[in-house]
Structure formats: structure tokens, C-alpha cells
Amino acid sequence: MRRPTLEAVAARAGVSRATVSRVVNGQLTVTPQIREAVLRAVDELGYVPNSAARSLVTQRTGSIALVVSEPPTRVFSEDPMFATVIRSASLELEAADRQVVLMLAGSAKSHARIERYIAGGHVDGVMLISMHGADPLPAAIARMGVPVVSYGRPAVPVPLPYVDNDNVGGAEKAARHLLDRGRRRVATIAGPQDMIAGQDRLTGYRNALRDADRRSIVAVGDFTRESGAVAMRHLLEDDPALDAVFVANDLMAVGVLQTLRQAGRRVPDDVAVVGFDDIEAARYTEPPLTTMRHPVVEQAAAMVRLLLGLFEGGPADPVILPTELVVRESG
């Protein structure tokens, strides 16, 4: 059975070939009545546009790269943040008739491969996630002139549009919540300091402790459960009298609760615990975890909308979403 052609659609709809081309390529210079007639003919004939030919006309591929600066072992781990961001961004792009190309940039070799792929014109834009330190990828992509946005404020001095949550304000609120509950020795387990989220949440904690004229007690993890467990053991060894801990993400907080249980410390009676993110598991820890809600789904969707807006000449202003304290039983 022969594949329906553009000419066949034009004949069925009673319009010119050029008009059909404008409709299938999403141009707006066609009246609603003619557009409806063309789309009806497309549906009746089962016409499928030739994607290669359409790309030549529109100079668009319909694909967006979602670049995660982590190795596969981290992306496909127990951390739900990556799956949530990928799923939410994919759904938002699907609604805009775009598709996601997932690319993992966890090594120098993968960086070079991704740069070649993007420079080859295979995607219309790029979304960057989980950038570390002096990552060269944002600057390299920016030099290509490809529209790019970041999930989180970039750690490198490159003027990239980004969407973030209020990490500093959220961490301040979490630490003040513990202080307001009468806790005297409030420690923190910060996230990795080569990531902006880790830096900003530590800054928020320190602001709250400084305002209360209290000494900061800091350990550092890497946003994994195991690192939270190890950091909590070190804190207990260094300062057995601490009675509260703000943990920079919920996954580390799960490890903290495990260490406290093994040490015979009751939560929240002996040590109160507050996390950050409000992952689903926070509701099912023992006890349920008090945490700052990080709007991951909304942030991913806002990142997509910001990128799509750039295609149409929209603003590149940063978008900052609020966080919310969710009080449960741990602190």
C-alpha cells in the first residue's frame, strides 16, 4: 500500500500543496477552517509527515536533549529525583509535540560525545541537570548558540537561563524550625559543595544559626543514603550532645535515621531530624520525616516552558520556586 503524499492530502482537502505544508509544519498563517479541512484529510488518509523533509523546512528536529551530569550508576539509583525530573520534563515536552533525548555526561568521554551530537544539529535545545563545579559543558553549549536552560542555578559563570527552588530560604526555614522547637545544638549534613544546591542549603543553615547566635556544626555528604549514615556517625562521635540535625536532602536523612536508631538515639526525643525535598519515602520512614518540600515536578515543567519560550524569543529571566515546610513526626 503506497504511503499517502502531500499532494493527495491537498487534493482531498481542496487546497494547494503549499497550504498543506504550512499546516503540517505548524505555521499559523492559515485560517481555522482551512486548517481543520487539512487535518481532517490528514486523518482520513493516514498521512504521516516525512520528518527529515519537515526538518529541512522548519529547521527544527522536534527533539530536546536532557543532559544529566552524572554517571548511569547515580541516575539509575535509589535517588528518585532523577526519575521525577526526567518523567516530568518528558510529559511537558510530549504535550508540546517534542521528544526527549536523554544523555548522561558522567565522564570526559561522554562530554565530548554530547558536544559533537549537539553541534551536529540533532536537537533544538538542551536542558542541563545536576551540574558539578567547573563543568565545561554549559559554556561549550552556550558557544554553539543552541538554546539551553539549567535545572538549578549554574555553578559556572555562564549566563544561562535557569529554574531553581529557594534553597537558601528553605534551609533557613528548616533550621529555624528546629531552633524554634527549643533545640540547642543543631547540626547539618550538607550536600556536595561542588553543587549549587549543596552550597545554598549550607548557606541557609548557617544564616539561621548565625542569627540565633549559635555555632554551626557541619558534616558533608554527597546526597546518597550511605553518605548520610556515615556523616551522622561522625557527628555523634564529634559532638554526642547534639539534639537536632538539618539534612540537605531526604535520601541522606533516611541514612541519618538508620544511624540514630543503631546508636540508640530516639527521634525526635533525643535528636530531631529535618530533611529537604519531600520525596515519597519521607512519609514512610520511622518516624515520618519532617522536611522542606522541593517542587521537583513543577520545577521540571517550568524548565521546559522556559526553554520552549526561548524558541519564540521569550524572556530568559531566572525562575525561582518557593519551598514549603512539611511537619511530620521526626522534628
What does this structure look like?
This protein has 331 residues and is of the alpha/beta class. The protein contains 13 helices and 12 strands. The strands form 2 sheets. Strands 2-1-3-4-5-11 form a 6-stranded parallel beta sheet, sandwiched between helices. It has a 6-stranded mixed beta sheet with strand order 7-6-8-9-10-12, with helices on both faces. α6 crosses α13, α7 packs parallel to α8 and α11 crosses α12. The longest helix is centred in the N-terminal third of the chain and has 16 residues. Keywords: DNA-binding, Transcription, Transcription regulation.
Fraction of helical residues: 40-55%
Strand order of the largest sheet: 2-1-3-4-5-11
- Report the strand count: 12
The coarse overall form would be elongated
Q: What is the string of SSEs from the N terminus onward? A: HHHHEHHEHEHEEHEHEHEHEEHEE
Task: Report the major sheet.
Answer: 6 strands, parallel
Radius of gyration: 25 Å
Please mark out the parts with pLDDT under 50 across 5 or more consecutive residues, or reply none.
Answer: none
Roughly what fraction of the amino acids lie in strands? 15-25%
Mean pLDDT rating: 91
Structural class: alpha/beta
Distance between the termini: 67 Å
Number of helices: 13
Give me a quick take on this structure.
The chain is α/β, with parallel strands linked by helices and 331 residues long. The protein has helices at residues 6-13, 17-24, 32-45, 51-58, 72-75, 80-95, 108-119, 137-144, 167-180, 196-211, 225-238, 250-262, 296-311, and strands spanning 63-68, 99-104, 125-129, 148-151, 162-165, 186-190, 217-220, 244-247, 272-277, 290-293, 319-321, 324-326.
